[in-house]
Amino acid sequence: MRSFAAVGGEPPLIARAKGSKITDVDDNTYIDYVGSYGPSILGHAPEPVVTAINKAARHGASYGAPTESETKLAEAVTAALPSIEKIRFVSSGTEAAMSAVRLARGATGRAKVVKCIGGYHGHADAMLVSAGSGATTLGVPSCPGIPVGAAADTILTPYNDLAAMQEVFGESGETIAAVLVEPVAANMGVVPPAEGYLAGLRNVCDAHGAMLIFDEVITGFRLSYGGAQSLYGVRPDVTILGKIIGGGMPIGAFGGAAGIMSRLAPEGEVYQAGTLSGNPVTMAAGLATLQALQAEGFYESLEERSAALGLGLEAAAREADLADKVCINRVGSMLSCFFAPPPVTDYAGATVANTKAYATYFHAMLDAGIYLAPSQFEAMFVSAAHSDDDITQTASASAKALRAAARLMA
Ligand code: PLP
């Protein structure tokens, strides 16, 4: 069960969803900005995707054998992201991140991986590390059940701090297999990359023979058809994908240059396999989704709506006299309303947020029929199904909800 632990109360049980709305078992309908935590860029249950899933399921859900649809989705993704010449599909973002890290270690013969404090790359042992402070910190597992050794080769640096990254490489460059980063941080709330940060990571990796891995599980096909790498013009060695490319079905993928990917078994020696990887139902849902995303003006129209929501939230913050206490971060159709002073540029800035004020805001929004993520440190996702009316309604509910939250921020 998905928990409301961070905001209190019991989550509604969702019965169905269509377009921008989700409906619970008691027939309460909400405008939804969780969007399944990212996949639902077309809104819920879009007709072409539902049709594709039905059609594929009638022919069998899984064969354990190659299919045409798997090849077609691979072609569509590699055409969209030139850094990916070869791709492998798996069943979750966690699996993709875990496999990409193994590939980088196998291909470089090095053990250490650098990740950002507050960056999320799924729940594999070595990646579930973010505790610590200061410029650089050695990995300490963030949760019980992870042996210290499993995280010992994970090095942490603050997101957006290129100097800290250079320092890490100065100390241990020859032992670092890869830098793993969300190009736009989305799991500390939405935090855009500082000017030059991603290009700087590219340079430092090149200088030390390490791989640059972009985790585009959230940003892939969301920020543009070519993902964050196209938006910011930085080419990673390996890209991790998930969410949108599966059209709401379970998926993950990782890919890169043919030479790197050929290190994977059975061609190479780095083992990876999965029973349900590339299953035809998921592939069909992904293909139908990518096709819809190629419609003329899709991303422009999503940007317009998202910008209107961002401006609406900023106006609501001013109305509630919170302009200096609330920070609206937006990159394309991903937004966060931090109950923290602007600007929020990293994990340290995000985590000073007043989470009690967010909880009050969250419940006031839920009462007004707006469904947000039950955590300050998640993104709001705008979809193509959100109407102008939805946006206006959300902004005006925000003005009221922010006033309620303001009492906790005096
Ligand atoms: N990477 C990022 C950036 C994510 O946001 C997530 C999940 O939210 C993952 C990896 C893990 O994906 P999954 O939940 O499909 O395992």
- Give the beta-strand count: 15
Order of helices and strands: EEEHHEHEEHEHEHEHEEHHHEEHHEEH
In what order do the strands lie side by side in the largest sheet? Answer: 4-11-10-9-8-5-7-6
Shape: globular
* Subunit organisation of the chains: single chain
What does the main sheet amount to?
8 strands, mixed
What is the terminal-to-terminal distance? 35 Å
Q: Which percent range fits the helix content?
A: 25-40%
- Unreliably modeled segments: 131-137
Molecules bound to protein: pyridoxal-5'-phosphate
How would you portray this structure in words?
There is one protein chain. By secondary structure, the protein is an alpha/beta fold. The protein is built from 13 helices and 15 strands. The protein has helices at residues 47-58, 68-80, 93-108, 148-151, 162-172, 197-208, 227-232, 258-261, 280-293, 298-319, 347-350, 355-367, 388-406; strands at residues 14-18, 21-24, 29-32, 86-90, 112-117, 137-138, 154-158, 176-181, 211-215, 238-242, 252-256, 327-331, 334-338, 370-371, 380-381. It has an eight-stranded mixed beta sheet, with helices on both faces. Helix 12 (355-367) crosses helix 13 (388-406). The chain is globular and about 60 Å long. It starts with 13 loop residues before the first strand and ends with a helix. Residues 131-137 have low confidence and may be disordered. Pyridoxal-5'-phosphate is lined by residues 37, 92-94, 97, 120-122, 182, 186-187, 215, 217-218, 242, 252.
